[in-house]
Amino acid sequence: MEEAAAGDNNAGEGSTGEGPEWPTEATGGVPEVAAHGLRGLIDGEGDEVWENRHSHVLRAHRFGRCVLNLNEHLFPLKSSPKKFASSMAMAMAMADDDEKRIAGEIARVLDECRISLAVHSRKIKELSALRSSAGGPFFRAFSRALTPLFDFPRRTVSSERSIRFVSSFAAHRDGRDTATSDAFLEEFLRFLLLAAASAHRAARFRACQIISEIIMRLPDDAEVSDELWDEVLDSMKQRVGDKVPAIRGFAIRALSRFANGGEDSDIVVLFLETLPGETNSEVRKSIVLSLPPSDMTSEAIITSTLDVSESLRKAAYLVLASRFPLPTLSIKQRSIILQRGLLDRSSSVLNECLKMLKDWLTKCCNGDPIVLLRFLDVETYESVGVLVMETLLKNGMVQEHQSIRQHLASSRTSEGIELIEAEVALYWRTLCWHLQSKAQIKGTDAASAMGTEAAIYASEASDNNDLLEAILPATVSAFVDLVKLHLSAGPNHHFTARQLLLLGTMLDFSDLTNRKVASEFVNELLLTPLEFEVDEDGNKIVIGDGISLGGDKEWARAVAELAKKVHASVGEFEAVITGVIKVLAQPCRDRTADFINWMHCLAVTGLLLENINNIWSLKGTGIEPSELLHALLLAGAQQSHTDVQRVAVRCIGLYGLLENRLTGELVTQLRSSFVNGAASVRIMTGKSMLDLLAWHGPQELDKAIGIDISQSNNEKGFISINSLNLMEDTNVGLLDLLYYGLNADNNGELGDADEHESVHSVLAEGFAKILLLSENYPSISTSLHPLVLTRLIKLYFCDETKELQRCISTAFIPTVRSFWPGIYGNSSGSSLIVSKMRKRALLVARFMLQMIQVPLLSKESKEDESNKVNSESHSCSLQMSDDFDDGMEGIAIRIAAEVASFSEKKTSAGKSYMLALSRLATSIQFRASEQHSIKCMRNLLNTMSYLVTGDKDIIKEFNLMATRLKSLDKHPDEEISEDQLATIFGKLGLEWNPSITSATFPPTPAQRSARSAPARRQRVRREVSSSDDNDSAEDNAASVSVAPMTASRISGRSQRASKTAAISKMSTKLRTEFLSDNEEDEESDVTAAAEEEPSSE
């Protein structure tokens, strides 16, 4: 296309290009149709149609035309037979000469049009006049002259010009003779439909290209019958699945004009189904550019912004900008689109996203960035709002807006100052940061430059500083009053107050008066108690996380930033914060504080420990380090309230990270909290101990409490621990204690603070990091690694990993897709490499199946007992299970849906992929309690067996699976409804398509006999599927006799097999017989296709 486009730009200069040359009178006349026609290019069923249409039919029409038009030159019909025959021969010769003359004229016009675009409009009029005057022979001559183009597959400049002219001529409707134009268009389209269905690649390519050009250029008043349009649409829908990417692209382009949400919504559905499985980036780009704006297509277009193709991501943002106005998208969609586009690694995609952002700003927001921020919900997506504002400021797309001073002056009323919106506060904060950073950069440049250049940089820095001062509040007191106003307004204005706090870090506190006012305000913020609610029983419940100041980590960070800005002198920040802690700790020492006071004091302590570099920086402050540890942290960890213990343990961990040498009391308290604490306390203690282990090493922690290093570092394994005297045992090291916690049965319960965390999950994550970074911990013996890995694997397969099983079930198909070569754009290679890659994909698939299968087997007996107990109550009605989606049944249904909807069935890689998935599906065992899943799988087996009809062995396994499922079905005669199937697919996150379970089978010459097949000699080495290990009895039966196939349930294979399939079967059998005993049993069927040509289509 780029080459063709380049040629179009030089069309007026008369440049020539390489392409088909049409024979003219000057070059030796027009050849016969047999030499250059499509008859020699079409194979298969198209041969007969083409021969019949363009040999017998056209000759008959030609003969009749000659009789009607040339009757004055013919002998009367009453003449002798010899005279009549000679007259017919003369008429046919004259008609051929006339047709050759017209074809020569058309070839001459085509030859001129391939040289330059400037003559196209004039030649269209000339050819239209020739069509009107020639009548019937024109189309035959036109098709004769055009056929060389169908044998030239290269896309050169001259060929593209010829295609453009032919399409323009066919779509042009002559106002003087509209009937002839419409008739020619219909006949030409039927001509192209025959070529589009041919087996010749170049013919299909040119036909789809011309059809797409005609459709795009066709005027709205063109008269084309509905039947013909239906044929064109059906043909192009079929070509969407063509193996040639260029043909698929033109077919999609032809259908794009009919893609809408009305009557032809099936085209949009076809596009959406084709897009995920399309391997060619240009075809995916064509699909995205063809999608109309709707709720159904928006998700697919937004997903394309993550595509690996840079041009496709750029096209996705182009479509979003042109067809999806900002209000039509949800808040989440807007945030995702902007975040991906503004952070894209490609500059072209980033520029396209900037154009979209500029269009949104000008067309939907009237150029006001605050209105744009309102569309993004900055309180929920703050990072996206900051990113958008930084981009707008960087590209100069923000006009001057009202400053804070102007807001305070204009909004002051008798009732007070008007509150600031969240979007306005974020706008001011990002604008001030931008101005401050520009002033600092220019100031640095001025300091490093000299002379006039330095003066210019200094002037620019001064201008930015002046503008910043004009925006910020005039005094610190005004700033403090503004923040207090929003704090007193309630939690709905908490976001605005935090933005104003961050804005305060840009104020100037060098003046003593300003610093005093700000210091008092910071002190007030630190002393503000935690907010809480009182439940029905009168218990206090803290609002927020209960760990950070104000119950919010971001709020605590903003307060810390403001405090460090106000108290910027060396040691001043530590002195002020310790002074506040001393005041808050006094009720705790006097034992008059409740748990709210304790948590408030510990939250401020945690803020201090997070913002200092060394614990010894607290020397000489209001509270010494030793006093802070013993009087506050250790005392808090020994409180009776669980939340106080949790916050205190966190602070103890932070304190230990700041120590150069750990204190024994600190480690002892952590061990005590880990052994005796509640679940939430043990979770926090586990995190603290793992952090200290990573920072100081396990030997330092053991050394701090006097444990002999040689005894604690056991080279052979972990020591056995008695939970009864765990604290009294002085030989229990840190690693031994943590490993004991990993093995303890009571550590699987979830904590109160985080519903998704448990002691097991925290410790497992920590030990996994230790194994991953083992080279950083040489003090940990490598002999302990297998023990840790063993425990992690056991923990992975415990009965409580329900969410993990669901995650594996959901990720199964995408994982196998990513590993299988030659599909969905995956790379391939030689047959040896492809074979190895397929073996690896099978190993990954079986490993994932085992990860789900183990916990299910451990529950099988319990489920059988429960089924027996509840069999009577559920005998009349089937209940939908809640856990089939995270079990083996869910994977089986996902596999069946993948096989049924797979789009690359004709390729070598696609066939092997479908066979491998089918074998995996037959190895899956269904539970008797999952009745709906059993009925669903029985329906899907019909489609699967039809798609893999060519493999006799997999059909046998399907028969065995169908028999096994029927025996598990309590009501085998009852059919599952489509609503129930849609519910199952919806719960699995799959798109429901009724055609998946309603496969139609082609007729066969004769029904296969229902009698058992005669006994055959058993092969030397039988191919064993993955289900052989589980069902040895069934496999032994299968090796003797095969279950008969019936047309009602399992598709009967046609007795006519192609020559290629027969040869493939024979070669597979020979290779199987000579496999050595050391090779894997299951690889023969899957890798047999790898011996053939790798999938490069």
TrEMBL record:
Signal peptide: none annotated. Its main location: nucleus. Residues 1-13 have a biased composition (Low complexity). Keywords: Cell cycle, Cell division, Chromosome, DNA condensation, Mitosis. Residues 1-29, 996-1097 are annotated as: Disordered. GO terms for cellular component: condensed chromosome; condensin complex. GO terms for biological process: cell division; mitotic chromosome condensation. It comes from the Eukaryota. Residues 1048-1058 have a biased composition (Polar residues). It is found in: Chromosome. InterPro entries: ARM-like, ARM-type_fold, CND3, Cnd3_C. Residues 1076-1097 have a biased composition (Acidic residues). The keyword Cell cycle applies. Residues 600-809 form the Nuclear condensin complex subunit 3 C-terminal domain. The keyword Cell cycle applies. Belongs to the CND3 (condensin subunit 3) family. This is Nuclear condensin complex subunit 3 C-terminal domain-containing protein. It comes from Zingiber officinale (Ginger).
